[in-house]
Amino acid sequence: MQTRYTTNPTDFKHYDTDRIRQDFLIESLFQPDSFEFVYSHYDRMIVGGVMPVQGPQSLPTYDELKADFFLQRRELGIINVAGDGSVTVDGQVFELTKKDCLYVGLGSKEVVFASNQPDQPAKFALISTPAHRSCPTAKLTSAEASPVDLGAQETANQRTIYKYIHADGLQSSQLVMGLTTLKPGSIWNTMPPHVHDRRMEAYIYFDIPENQRVFHFMGHPQETRHLLVASDQAILSPPWSIHSGAGTTSYSFIWAMAGENYSFTDMDFVQLRDIR
């Protein structure tokens, strides 16, 4: 488990490309039979992934948590972004196909991840935040997530939004989580951009072809920077930063938030004329 510390937006203005990638880009989320985690000091969110290949993988605990088990004081959101698999929580089995979501509540002791076929392994994207109340472990498929189509072909941002963990969906203590899939021919996400100073956000990009990339824009609205992001990589977005992207092709990404409030619509939009 890596640890990433918070950044002052004034200092961020002086970062070069390598420093921005070091602090905000998570380059490796899915390695065979291994948990990959980054512990962020932004709202204590943990971003990670696991890809079971040779056999089931049990969620370990880490010294950084100072806990008897991983979810002793935390909750966990899981979205499968690849082959069919399952997650077993304290003996209860949940089958997850691609884009299905599972919420695992505070106090769950044993969480085991498995792929149905080793040659087509599942890739479980993992987001964990501190929890102050216990909510039931529950599953939601992509079809049950009330998908909403937004955007227009003229602005190259036709997309489908799936909201899984939020006030009107799977209940949680503070985690808000879902995903967005862009239609063929559309490349822009989260444009016009916004910030939300009350909480941080993480993006996990997936379904990007090998030789394609997403230009992810971040930074204070008057001091923007960009990162080139490949498939199965993640971005940590500070509360003061915009988070937007344009791809060389269409793609999908998971978004997850944690912090002061629990409202999906809490966004401070920034007009394009004010972006620098």
From TrEMBL:
It catalyses: 5-dehydro-4-deoxy-D-glucuronate = 3-deoxy-D-glycero-2,5-hexodiulosonate. It comes from the Bacteria. Its EC number is 5.3.1.17. Pfam families: KduI. Pathway: Glycan metabolism; pectin degradation; 2-dehydro-3-deoxy-D-gluconate from pectin: step 4/5. Keywords: Isomerase, Metal-binding, Zinc. CDD domains: cupin_KduI_C, cupin_KduI_N. Gene3D superfamilies: Jelly Rolls, pectin degrading enzyme 5-keto 4- deoxyuronate isomerase, domain 1. Zn(2+) binds at residues 194, 196, 201, 243. GO terms for biological process: D-galacturonate catabolic process; D-glucuronate catabolic process; pectin catabolic process. Its cofactor is Zn(2+). One of its GO terms (molecular function) is 4-deoxy-L-threo-5-hexosulose-uronate ketol-isomerase activity. Binds 1 zinc ion per subunit. Catalyzes the isomerization of 5-dehydro-4-deoxy-D-glucuronate to 3-deoxy-D-glycero-2,5-hexodiulosonate. Belongs to the KduI family. This is 4-deoxy-L-threo-5-hexosulose-uronate ketol-isomerase. It comes from Larkinella rosea.
